Structure prediction request, 677 residues.
Amino acid sequence: MKTWNQRVLGVLIFLSTLSLPPSITFAQGSLTPPGAPAPTMVTLSQIEPRTPISSAPFTISQPGSYYLTTTLNVTSGDAIDITTNDVTLDLHGFTISSTAPSATGTGILLSGTLTNMNIAICNGFIRGGVTEDGSGVYSGSGFGDGINYTNFGNYPPVNVRVSNVSISGCLYTGISLGFESSTIVSSCTVNCVGSYGISADVVADSTAIFCGQGAISARTASNCYGVTYNNAAISVFSAQNCWGDSYNGDGVYAFTANNCFGTSGYGTGIDANYCANNCYGTGGSYGLYSYQTAVGCGGYSGGGTGLSANVATSCEGQSEYGTGLSAYIANSCQGQTFYGTAQSITYKYNMP
Amino acid sequence: MKRSEKTQWLVCSCFCLIHSASCISAPAFEGRINAVMTRGGQTETLLYTVGTNFLRVEATATNWPNPVDLLDRNSGALTLLFPHNRSFVQLKPGAENSSAMPPGFPQMPGGLPPGVGPQSRPPGGPAMPNSLPPGIGPTNLSGMPAMPGRPPMPMMPAGLPPGVGPQAQSPNAPGAPAMPAPPNLPAAGRIPSMPAMPMMPPMMENVELQATGEKTNLLGFACEKFEIRQRGETMEIWATDQLLPFQDYVRSQPHRFGPRMIEGQWAGLLTAKKLFPLRASLHFDNGSERFRFEVTSVTPQKLSKEDLKLFQPPDGYFEIQPLPF
Prediction:
């Protein structure tokens, strides 16, 4: 009769055989090689299915994804011409430049025959040689426009996005995408262009400074900064968290302005066609002007009106020689002046 | 003299008589007008070159490449020349006065009741504090004493080239926009209607050019006095119908929503009545003036062929498209 220990030992030996590796427990396979190994590498097009661009001028006439492999330079005309739809162009961190003696051509031109649809441009720089001479005159070599499109006004671009692109030194336009068909410019910078800085349906997280005729023009702009000499610096339907500075025009000109700051030499700092909320403006004509309502706003003007609104609530306007605060209805507001009129208000509430 | 020659002579004589008569009854001014415009402490001299079919308006100051306006008096098309980058923009007729919205955008809320608007002067405001809060106010207005105890305005970002920035005055978008139409809400029916506002006080007044009946003679032209009033401001205008319909000096493309301030609307009101101002002054009801326009000379002059080139963009200027709105 087996003892208890012998039974346990037998079970353990049996279990140990179950945990042995197959190589020990089973026989090896055939040692005859199965034949030549099949290729396991992937093709270059599988690794990088995009089309490289290594020289300019270059025309993109087929839909697809394209990328720069090097810095490009042209001596005249356009650098990259996109003539078809459904294109992604990655500048890959490289720069497109022009040394055209007379600033002409466009860095990236959207020139679809009928329209320019479904196009994305990102990650790079477009640079011309245009400078401002200190007296307001823009001149130099390079591009006329940074990113622009043809058929302006007839067939504006559709579903076009430009992101993370910096443009400088163009004689006319930085980024121009039109307004009517879903265009976005985000995280872009424009510096020193003779006409318009950025124009698109939506402009976000972008700056356009040192522009000749307007920095940012859009349906809506958020977290933007614009500086221009003429026209409004930021001219939009809806402005959120924007700063606009113009010498001759308005700092921020918007249908509605929220949390904005605007300065103007001779125009209006914040010019809200309907309402301004939590905004501050300074300007030679008006510091802040809202055709309808201003809430929580401030305005300053040297010779004009500090703050003017149809209905002003919790606002303050200051003027040295003009009217500090002008409103039809004012609630909890204050107007100040040194040599002019502190306030011009028809109906006042909660204020002296 | 043969019969045919007599006929020709008679036809020519009649044509000349008719033409002369028409010229006498409606003499079209041709020549040059100099004017001075003062705003925001800055004075600017303007030159109007008036042709039969075209008008050129420009600032005579040479310290800055100011835009030049070319107006086709027949079509109303306005071309803005921008010397600063040798470009020009052609605006469609009436665009400089347009306040049109892009398609689908709701219009401004409704028009104002007749006769509304602030008419009364406010009582004296609180005493001015010793100094304005820190961080506000421009410091570079010429002719104005420096404000004590205030830090300067927020400065331009570092890195910009020195000496930049125009020195001229602010743009004066011309034209008087029509009062905004009632709102055209999209997808009517989805948005619940707003309840009527009870006892809503009258809103802003409609800006109108009102004749005062006063008359005078300025620079040899019979003038009538007009007034425009808005929110504690009054613009007094002496204007004549013996020159040409007024064209304001346009520096920039027009505002997309249309001008709202008096100085942005007065020109359009005069243009509609085919008046040209000889003197205009915009002042607060307390008397201080903040805008002035005054003609200093009117020189009737037949323009030469060389002068006609002034009404076209110079060679080498590049046309850029106007902003869509």
About this structure: Chain A touches chain B through 94 residues (CB under 8 Å). Chain A has a mean pLDDT of 90. Helices of chain A lie at 4-18, 22-25, 44-47.
